[in-house]
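Hello forum,

I keep getting stuck at the same step: I have a sequence, I want structure tokens, and every attempt I make locally crashes halfway through. Rather than fight my setup again tonight, could one of you with a working pipeline run this one for me? It's a single chain of 319 residues.
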Amino acid sequence: MKVFISGNIAPIGLKQLEENNIEVTQWKENRQITSEELIEACQNQDGLISVGPNKINADFLNACKHLKVIALHSVGFDQVDVKEANKLDIAIGNTPGVLSGATADTAFLLMLAVSRKAFYLHKKILKGEWKNYEPTPELGIELNGKTLGIFGMGKIGLEMAKKCIGAYQMPVIYHNRSNNEEAEKAIGAKYVSFEELLAQSDVLSIHTALTDETKDKFNLDVFKQMKREAIFINTARGGIHNEHDLTEALEQGIIWGAGLDVTNPEPMSADNPLLNMENVAVLPHIGSATQETRNAMAEIIVKNILAGIKGEPLPHQVN
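Reply #2:
Ran it on my machine without issues. Output:
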């Protein structure tokens, strides 16, 4: 059986594929594969391991309808036309659960970095601008006892909430489509309306999927409903916030700061004004980028591929 991999995965995954007599072809160029190249590469394959923001849309799926399985190197599947995959009987797998802790760590890191303007002040050292001690300029804010708001209280949101409670005794409110009883029992999280979430959160952390409903959800009108001292954190998908509106909200002091591990588009341009704001911290989508998490993701991917090739249900199946 043959599998094409559109990028790099952890070596443990490649080893396990080899041990299961899977013939692997891997994209090795230091750039994202194009849609046309991906279609061509998959023509004689039984499965695809999709690494990066490949568009698994109707055009791709119909051009590659011979594929038995597509294993995503992600928990999110917003780039997949799931309805079309169902129609063509192509199994789609993802990697949920194993990246919750690492992604929550990234959200926590961004929250703390923004609160103390850490990225901006570090750049001042690099520019030779660290001079005499001054007690009042460029002050940060403290997080102890501040209210954490979670938009999308799933596994990652719950992990983020636990960290914030443990470190800073932050009361937690959240908004979902429905109540998360586990979070309410485990940490005393309180379900609130979307409007209450905006009005009450000192830190608002995004942990939801990108859907038609959440695309551009956080725009200028929404930022205007938040506290002026609020910190906005997004480690989910860049399309959930409107980046132009976020920039305007920060420039006008509508909200206090922002921490982003995801941007729109990705990668972010080096001249993006957000990168030079003192109350902003931006990372290059490193949410799950730990050795432990990437190894675990690779192992799940292999299990999804092997099951799909055999025509069995995937351990983690989207459709």
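The domain at 2-98+290-309 is CATH 3.40.50.720 (Rossmann fold). If your local run keeps crashing, start a new thread with the error log.
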